[in-house]
């Protein structure tokens, strides 16, 4: 997507606000916009920030060329169009690093600049962070449930074709081993995997012929899908064709726990002791956890990953919290926000276990303790990258480190409270 | 996205299957792949096909240029790479028209061609149809619940930035009036709408100043957001600033039903009898239905639309059902499919009310009745468009017509069985 303008991935009202603010002179007021989630998805104990690197890239392409301006010419006055033609974000951004855990109220992405500069980025920032964080948060629970066994991401077909690519990236960030999505390999270097579907077996005159063709083309280390007809027969044929050096079998339907156990016995009795068992088919974190005691070597996960396992959006908002140094917040009945620019630190026990998320108004008297860690890092300064972004591998390591730091209840899959409380410190 | 190759929006295993089939000579067997949903999302009474036009466009761009082939050179043998370099889909496609209702088993998108030609399209076809159909299906329920009142789509910030554009299109297809998404206007000509967020009020020294700026920039026919501080005061200020000719007010939080009633009384008492009331804030089809008796003039819907209101994917699959004229199907325990190429007709009462979805194997003896309607239309012939696709407006009308044809239980929002049963006729 490099090179393409992202400027119209924006809500109409951001530009009408801009027009009105340019007209009355308020557009140049210095503002702070804060991105945060009021709460975690129902029952979740932590969230994981995903998409930061994608947002950085998208902001760098947020420019209005002739094609974009032509679309807006009926809607906006000439002064606003002229302003947009020159638009480059020149403000500052601080945020949680990609892969960092977050909790209710965590200031995940703070944009400072003029009102005009900041208001137009709302939709783009939220779209990316809301999507990618939802996926990586769900994925982290699956990785945690898989307890060291590798997971293959194969959900691209169940979500928008571009969301599929971002989902593959988010899954890898969460700790998935590979993806089926080829574009994710091109764009992000994520390793891909895949062998054959039921269609390949059905195409052939027999399962034997199909397995023979596959082994000839892909080698004996391939994964043979054994549940097209009868699984027991399928496994027998698989070993007959590939020999006991067969890489793996895959079971995609039925009670995969029971079937895995039977398959393991059968494979062992055939002498294929090192042939792995891959299971797939509507797995989510709960199904993965339930398979922990079964002889499963890898999981294939699709739908539940790309749909955020029940929480397809992270529900983050992008709120104006400060104008010319004055804290501001909506004050009517519901959906209240806390005014003022905030930062955050995570407090830990000496053992490294997280204790609380301290979200404080910048300038408030917060006594730092020895095991505190500041959570915001500089992302943009004067519109330019504040440094090199972490690599995807580094962000992936950050997720692992974050999960290790949670109190043990934080890793439970059951519905509960956030793993650590958010403590607000106001001025 | 015109001009960009879609070829890598594909699962790895499609190309390894291709390689193995090219090597053993089965790649050229004539195949039929069928796209269908085994079931509707839990409790839903109908689905609506979305994305057909996007799939047609995506298939036309499914070509492997040098950049795509370079990505695959480590994975595939030279013969496969050469085959891909020449790839253009040259087969036939028949499917349900976009906007058509569907039910379990409806053959929504049937691809005929060689195995090689058809197998590589699986992920792309499914990604688009699964996403867009999920959104339009949810949207149709909301439009139905709104009972003639317009709905504004404003969910782009809660989903992937490109899924946002497709969601805006799907919402319009479902009958939404407008979208906030500017790219959807550029790409699909969908009317956009939007005025101001709470940020605009907070930016100003007072609500009065903010409303004044907005009315000066956008005219008195604008929509003023009145719930930043105190709604009653906000409405008073709105009319004071804009006069009784104010277009609309918007309420985005709180118990919007109660607030709308109070707002209507207040507006009327101020003489602003024609000022409309727009409500938004976490609305879904149930909330919209609950507001039916309240003086609401329009709804703004975001999160619930773009997440498919609990069903973010349509769960469609793409299955090989015929090889060289021989019906094929997976036969093991679960996830069975029905073999053979199928077509479908919808049976109606003489009044036009739908009675059943008759899914029949092509060639089976189906006695057509006077009020039957064949559901598949030709989409591609020899890889070329079989005719001009319906316009988005025509597909939108098709959704309306479809909903009118359902038995009344079919429009209930509560969980239930599909509105009409699917009847299979095999040879």
Automatic annotation (TrEMBL), chains A, B:
UniProt cross-references to SUPFAM superfamilies, sorted A to Z: Nicotinate/Quinolinate PRTase C-terminal domain-like (SSF51690), Nicotinate/Quinolinate PRTase N-terminal domain-like (SSF54675)
InterPro entries on file: Aldolase_TIM, NAPRTase_N, Nic_PRibTrfase-Fam, Nic_PRibTrfase_pncB, Nicotinate_pribotase-like_C, Quinolinate_PRibosylTrfase_C
Task of the protein: Catalyzes the first step in the biosynthesis of NAD from nicotinic acid, the ATP-dependent synthesis of beta-nicotinate D-ribonucleotide from nicotinate and 5-phospho-D-ribose 1-phosphate.
UniProt pathway annotation: Cofactor biosynthesis; NAD(+) biosynthesis; nicotinate D-ribonucleotide from nicotinate: step 1/1
Annotated GO CC locations: cytosol
Annotated Pfam families: NAPRTase_N, QRPTase_C
Catalysed conversion reaction: 5-phospho-alpha-D-ribose 1-diphosphate + nicotinate + ATP + H2O = nicotinate beta-D-ribonucleotide + ADP + phosphate + diphosphate
Cell cycle listed as a keyword: no
Keyword entries, A-Z: Glycosyltransferase, Ligase, Phosphoprotein, Pyridine nucleotide biosynthesis, Transferase
Record EC number: 6.3.4.21
PTM info: Transiently phosphorylated on a His residue during the reaction cycle. Phosphorylation strongly increases the affinity for substrates and increases the rate of nicotinate D-ribonucleotide production. Dephosphorylation regenerates the low-affinity form of the enzyme, leading to product release.
Family designation: Belongs to the NAPRTase family.
Protein name: Nicotinate phosphoribosyltransferase
Domain of life according to the entry: Bacteria
Nicotinate phosphoribosyltransferase N-terminal domain: residues covered: 8-130
Domain named Quinolinate phosphoribosyl transferase C-terminal: residues: 137-303
Organism: Actinophytocola algeriensis
């Amino acid at each position: 997507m490099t090179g393409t303008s992202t400027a119209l991935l924006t809500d109409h009202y951001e530009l009408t606000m801009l027009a009105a603010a340019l007209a009355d002179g308020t557009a140049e007021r210095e503002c702070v916009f804060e991105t945060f989630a009021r709460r975690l998805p129902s029952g979740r104990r932590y969230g994981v920030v995903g998409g930061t690197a994608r947002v950085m890239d998208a902001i760098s392409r947020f420019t209005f060329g002739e094609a974009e301006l032509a679309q807006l010419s009926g809607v906006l006055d000439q002064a606003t169009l002229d302003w947009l033609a020159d638009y480059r974000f020149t403000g500052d951004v601080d945020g949680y690093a990609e892969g960092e855990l977050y909790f209710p109220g965590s200031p995940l992405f703070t944009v400072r600049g003029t009102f005009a500069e900041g208001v137009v980025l709302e939709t783009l920032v939220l779209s990316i962070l809301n999507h990618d964080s939802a996926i990586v948060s769900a994925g982290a629970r699956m990785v945690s449930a898989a307890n060291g066994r590798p997971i293959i991401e194969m959900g691209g077909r169940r979500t928008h074709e571009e969301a599929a690519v971002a989902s593959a990236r988010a899954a890898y960030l969460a700790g998935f081993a590979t993806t089926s999505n080829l574009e994710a390999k091109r764009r992000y270097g994520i390793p891909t995997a895949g062998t054959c579907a039921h269609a390949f077996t059905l195409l052939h005159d027999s399962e034997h012929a199909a397995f023979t063709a596959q082994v000839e083309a892909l080698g004996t280390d391939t994964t043979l899908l054994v549940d097209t007809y009868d699984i027991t027969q399928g496994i027998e044929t698989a070993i007959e064709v590939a020999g006991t050096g067969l890489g793996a079998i895959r079971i995609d339907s039925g009670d995969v726990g029971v079937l895995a156990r039977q398959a393991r016995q059968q494979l062992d009795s055939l002498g294929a002791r090192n042939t792995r068992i891959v299971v797939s088919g509507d797995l989510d974190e709960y199904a993965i956890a339930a398979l922990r005691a079964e002889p499963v070597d890898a999981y294939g996960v699709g739908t539940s990953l790309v749909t955020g396992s029940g929480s397809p959006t992270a529900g983050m908002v992008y709120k104006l919290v400060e104008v010319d140094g004055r804290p501001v917040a909506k004050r009517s009945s519901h959906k209240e926000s806390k005014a003022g620019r905030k930062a955050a630190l995570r407090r830990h026990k000496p053992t490294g276990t997280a204790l609380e998320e301290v979200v404080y108004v910048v300038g408030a008297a917060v006594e730092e303790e020895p095991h505190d860690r500041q959570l915001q890092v500089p992302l943009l300064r004067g519109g330019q990258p504040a440094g090199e972004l972490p690599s995807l591998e580094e962000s992936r390591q950050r997720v692992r480190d974050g999960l290790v730091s949670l109190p043990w209840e934080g890793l439970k899959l059951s519905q509960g409270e956030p793993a650590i409380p958010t403590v607000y410190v106001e001025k």
